[in-house]
Amino acid sequence: xxxxxxxxxxxxxxxxxxxxxxxxxxxxxxxxxxxxxxxxxxxxxxxxxxxxxxxxxxxxxxxxxxxxxxxxxxxxxxxxxxxxxxxxxxxxxxxxxxxxxxxxxxxxxxxxxxxxxxxxxxxxxxxxxxxxxxxxxxxxxx
Length: 142
Description:
This protein has 2 helices and 6 strands; from the N terminus they run ααββββββ.
């Protein structure tokens, strides 16, 4: 199992100077803030602060995901034309990757507030993290 395709893409997306995420809110007159032909934020620090996205980070301790499969089978002939076969099957995967936003606002019952982000000068900070280890076990009789 390998994630090298995803990870190689991650390293190509480092330039954040032109990546901005901005909500197109309504002005007091009911019109959207950004309309054609003026469809981007102004080049002032106060306007663009907190809109830059760091599109993908890879944890320095990242290791490729792996999985192991196993089975144990017992067969027994009961009669000349009848047999019983019982199998125990399993698979364990570990170090499964997931993309997480390191700058996500903590969950709350309150309305969204961007000032609660850990790094307020950034928008999203996406990172590939090792976060899951699913295990599947089964028994089959035939």
